[in-house]
Batch of 2 targets.
Target 1
Amino acid sequence: MDEDIIELMKKRWTARKFKTKEVDEDDLEIILEAGRWSPSGGNKQPWELIVIKDEKTKLDIAELYAEGMGMSNPPERYTSPPVLIAVCVDKRVMDSYPDMMPAEFVVYASIGSMVQNMSLAAASLGITLSWGTQPEGIKEEVKELLEVPDYMELPDILQLGYPDQERYSSSRRELAEFVHYDKIDVSRLREI
Ligand SMILES: Cc1cc2nc3c(=O)[nH]c(=O)nc-3n(C[C@H](O)[C@H](O)[C@H](O)COP(=O)(O)O)c2cc1C
């Protein structure tokens, strides 16, 4: 085992406030390359990524996000990071799995694995990559803004850059709380 991998995973975190400091092009390429090498169901690689650096486009995204979330101002998390990455899912890939397979799960799990690969590569470079789930109500408007065709979804716009905030504490459930052996032990399940 690579001794440092768990440390790298703990180093990754989600910032919500970013400096405007640029991300080096070589670093961006490494992060995208990490995404490229993610596993995906049937190796179908159902993703398309839009790298966004244009200030007006970032502001348009922030304004739509504010509209979708009922916020009065466009959030800085979409205007201040030097790079946003819109994650697009090509839904046509879902039709290419056999009918008995849960295609939606496979496609979105593949997307998650790609974002995590990019997050870890970013963390190893001292860069933060944060998720930004897009509210349902503005989905079509965001797609239109970025000229994403109907047969694609755009579930997330990632923010990439250097945090302009202290890291907050973020805990995880203990292994003993969620790992079960042989059968699930419902008496240990948490209240939700
Ligand atoms: C699929 C997914 C969607 C997320 N969407 C958002 C989001 O819309 N806004 C946000 O602030 N954080 C979002 N997050 C970040 C989580 O809130 C964060 O990972 C979690 O609180 C743990 O904190 P950490 O990443 O700093 O360790 C998302 C994370 C994942 C994996």
Target 2
Amino acid sequence: MMSCLLCAPAAAGAEEVSLPQPQIQEGMSVMQALARRQTSRSFAVAEISISQLSHILWAANGINRAESGGRTNPAALGVHSVEVYAVTDKGIYLYLPQSHALHLVAEGDFRMATTKGQAFVGEAPLTLVYVGNSSAWENARRVPSEGEQVLYDSIAAGSMSQSVALVAAAEGLGTCVRGSIDIEAFGEAAGLQEGQTILLAQTVGVLQ
Ligand SMILES: Cc1cc2nc3c(=O)[nH]c(=O)nc-3n(C[C@H](O)[C@H](O)[C@H](O)COP(=O)(O)O)c2cc1C
């Protein structure tokens, strides 16, 4: 029987889902992962495990230096303005780096709201959506112009998605980073507010 990604928390109505700690001693070399990285748009009918989900989200936006709160990806001026939403058949969840947990934002299957019609997205177990949040820039030591903020957020999302692509490759998973997103549909489903900008989506599934 197929395991169900994030099944239990949604069934129990829980709003926050703790993720297992990432296993940083495991995995293949970065060179091997780079050799495997490629875009995949066809996946097996299979779930990714909660441990793989933990690794993917930690690669996307996790804290790798507890003492400073530093993350797995760089951020201009040290401002981590890009947030990561995880979209499964059970709901939309916001990743919380500090607690390495997911916060339930909306219950239901909104996977197709993250695409303008690429059908494989509705079948794949996971899509990440990278969202810039302009309020994060308010207290920066130098507040960049709006144009710079979009540029910096986009670069950060690119870096985050490549980290995910490499971890996924190392875990035997496939990914497709996507700029083609139904911005209105996902914004509404996730309850995004003014100042939040959808930058990039990334679909993840088990390779066939
Ligand atoms: C910014 C960006 C946006 C992309 N948008 C899409 C998309 O909307 N849909 C899609 O199927 N692939 C998308 N791709 C994936 C590219 O088509 C893919 O990376 C390219 O064909 C090269 O193939 P490779 O990744 O296997 O090397 C995007 C890639 C990037 C970097």
